[in-house]
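User: What would this chain look like folded?
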Amino acid sequence: MTQPTTIPRASGHNSALHRHRSVALDLAQHGVPVLPLRAGKVPFGNCPACRDNTCGGRPNMKTPGPCDCPRPCHAWAAATTDPATITGPAWAPAWRQAAAVAYHPGGTGLTVVDLDHADAVDWARRTLPATRIVLTTRGEHWIYRGSMPSANAVRDGVDIKSTMVYARWLGPGTGTMTDLPDAVRALIVKEPSPVRSIPCSVTVPAPVGGPDCPHRVPAYLDRGIAMAEQRITGASNAVHATVYRTFLAVLSTHGRCGCLTETHMARLFAAAQAKGESPRHCTDAWANALTRLGL
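Assistant: Here's the prediction, encoded as structure tokens.
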């Protein structure tokens, strides 16, 4: 999708019934994926299976959950530029009750720095390059050209809204949109937490009389740990699940003969924490893997 150089100045009909849908159609025409919002800035479930969050989406359906529909029907994943969907019967009840229009910033190559209060706005003015600014009820949206992973509470009163989230449409704003700066990208980069030392509880010896354990060959074990680190580091989503599955794979291969040391564990924990996992999550994932394998 071509990244817009500006956000269109959407216009709507005077009729309250059609105003939000008209705004949505105008935005969609300019390549901005849109969806209706009900009161409280919450998406609608646009099919009977998703009414009142019965499909299993997360609280207030702000994140898509499993759905019986042929395609996602609520939250950011439902945002679309298809006029037939926007004006179609499935979305008609939503538009009749809509309190606002939302859009998927990452879906059109944008990032919104959501500044929730005056102190956050002052910080942005001191720290970030000028760009398109949209006033909100409590602060400002600073909109940059370029997408990135989204994150909440990157500092006090500051959220990043880009991929896999939606933002409320509050008008075209003022100022010239500029490219997403490194200073914003850096806000979601977490420094690795100190690795907690976890005693290794896997001490099952090699079978008596059997051959030497191949895991004790340094190159074999080091290669396995390096591959595990790469698998964790390369995870672009479902990081917690990836960490657990990686720990499980390492322990299933190297966990029954006492080869793993605290140094190996520290390497795996450091890789996981560099992806945003907490020491507690690492410990729990390791313990759950041990339990799963009966170790």
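Residues 57 and 282 are 26 Å apart (CA to CA). If you want, I can go into more detail on any region.
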